[in-house]
From TrEMBL:
InterPro entries: FAD-bd_8, FAD-bd_FR_type, FNR_nucleotide-bd, MRET, OxRdtase_FAD/NAD-bd, Riboflavin_synthase-like_b-brl
Organism from which the protein derives: Devosia soli
Domain FAD-binding FR-type, first and last residues per copy: 1-101
Coiled coil regions, renumbered to chain: none
One Pfam family per UniProt: NAD_binding_1
PANTHER family named among the record's database cross-references: NADH OXIDOREDUCTASE HCR, PROTEIN RFBI
GO MF annotation terms: oxidoreductase activity
UniProt-recorded name of the protein: Flavodoxin reductase
Biological classification of the source: Bacteria, Pseudomonadati, Pseudomonadota, Alphaproteobacteria, Hyphomicrobiales
Domain of life of the source: Bacteria
């Protein structure tokens, strides 16, 4: 299935991340954490598909994507930055294995936080955010997506860490075995991972070595 939808507006979040709010087709549903393949409805771009997670809630009247643009090469995300209200995107079937299975620790690298946005928004809206922890690693503070919104979620335990921002007052640590031991400690709970493939692979191995149950670790397979 593919359907063309109109962009209603774009909202800047960081120097390279925007919300894209688009029309919601009748009967089009998803669960928080799921995604679809998106392409730009312009000549030469319709077949250039990229996976993006829904960051709106399922009951919202519109759909929202939160997308990081990479300006160092002329790809889809670079082209998306030039779009605005009235331009069109092509959506396809919904897919994705990152769905909420109970309180746990969400670990993300950079834009890997996007599958967690709708999950945490829904938990916050329904009063179920307590007992969850969000750990996000970025290069710099200016790269953090939705920092103010996450920090306003009362009951959500948050750890920001940066790896390339010497002036930051945030943690400046990589997520390694020692980091997990000090900041997580209890590995009996659930874990949700998203980020660069190499990072997710490394953290899965670290969690396994620390004694986490592989059945309690969720990532995009």
């Amino acid at each position: 299935m593919s359907i063309s939808v109109k962009i209603l507006d774009t909202i800047p979040l960081t120097h390279n991340v925007r919300h894209y709010r688009v029309e919601k087709p009748k009967g089009y549903g998803f669960s928080p954490g799921q995604a679809t393949e998106v392409s730009i409805d312009r000549d030469g771009w319709q077949d250039e598909k990229r996976p993006f997670t829904f960051t709106s809630l399922p009951d919202d009247d519109t759909l929202e994507f939160t997308i990081k643009s990479y300006f160092d090469h002329p790809g889809v995300t670079n082209q998306l930055w030039s779009l605005g209200a009235g331009d069109k995107l092509i959506l396809r079937d919904v897919w994705g294995t990152i769905q909420y299975r109970g309180p746990g620790t969400f670990i993300a690298g950079g834009a890997g936080v996007t599958p967690f946005i709708a999950i945490l928004r829904q938990l916050n809206a329904t009063g179920k955010i307590a007992g969850n922890r969000l750990i996000v690693s970025n290069q710099t503070e200016k790269d953090i997506i939705l920092r103010d919104e996450f920090e306003a979620m009362k009951g959500l335990d948050i750890i920001w860490t940066v790896t390339g921002d010497a002036k930051s007052k945030l943690l400046q640590e990589r997520i390694d075995a020692d980091f997990l031991k000090r900041h997580v400690g209890d590995f009996s709970g659930k874990f949700y991972l998203c980020g660069p493939d190499a990072m997710v692979k490394d953290i899965r191995e670290l969690l396994d070595e620390a004694g986490a149950d592989v059945g309690n670790v969720t990532w995009e397979k």
